[in-house]
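Quick start: what a row looks like.
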Amino acid sequence: MKKILSIDGGGIRGIVPGQVLIALEDKLQKKTGDPNARIADYFDFFAGTSTGGILTCILLCPSETDPTKARFSAKEAVDLYVKNGGDIFSRSFLYEVESIDGISRAKYEVAAIEKYLSQYFAELKLSQLLKPCIVTSYDIGRRQTKFFAQQDKAKVGDEGDFYVKDVCRATSAAPTYFQTELIKSISGEDYACIDGGVFANNPTLCAYSEVRNATGDPTAKDMFVVSIGTGSQEQPYQYDKAKDWGAVGWVRPVIDIMMSGAAEVTDYHMNKMFSAGGNLDNYVRIQPANLGNADPAMDNASTVNIDALIAVGTQTAKSCDKELDRIVDILSAGPDPVVFS
């Protein structure tokens, strides 16, 4: 059975699925008796959008001493946000004034996030990641979706290969938050990209369709999918206020509604597809019941909010403890490589 992991977008809320993955990795280590067991060892295909795309790439980053093993644990992946979130989502007073608080240009400068991505990935290429994967983005120059897909290391080719740090910047270039990222493939072709969350904040359906086209034509009965969300904005928008909003007033709400709506639609279709053939047990969606005391804003990286998000993720893992045990049992059955002809 092909085992697939998909991680939603959500900015700093990536801490939430991160905590679930820490709990899952801990269970895998106890189940196997291997303290060095990693998430990358047990899933056969990965998908991520925005913060989920970054986590995906970190989890699949090969060790410097053994390129067949994962370099980072789940906790080390989440540390990107826990330890550095406050720096990534920060700006100087001068920039805040010049950008008119994010109205005239992107709300945040990119120097910090680019610094940390370089620290994690250096010159690592997409083709060097440990497992097949897909990371979403949108190419505004060509007006089309851009999928950074690693199907077969030997067949990627320079035109389809990219530096991982650039892929991560592209998938997380959320409109109004970070500037559009102009990246180059290894062959030198330009792509002007923004956050994949504008069309696939939940990339599970992208992962399903990608694996569906792998060698052997696997269907839902041949897949086991774990999809992890980052929580969502639950506070409703009041009609009395929203009815008079213009372009400026609608900018942030539209982004929020678009991303959360896209994630919900994907979950709806996944449930329909897997239940149609009696394979609903092969699809697991883990999403916080609520965000508790955490701020749902994608960019609130205050110490208080980071702690609150850690608490939400930890509680989410505890609430689905039995489901995580079932996932571990299935993952422990061994790999079923996803191969593309």
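That is the whole record. The longest helix spans residues 247-276. Residues 183 and 191 are 5 Å apart (CA to CA).
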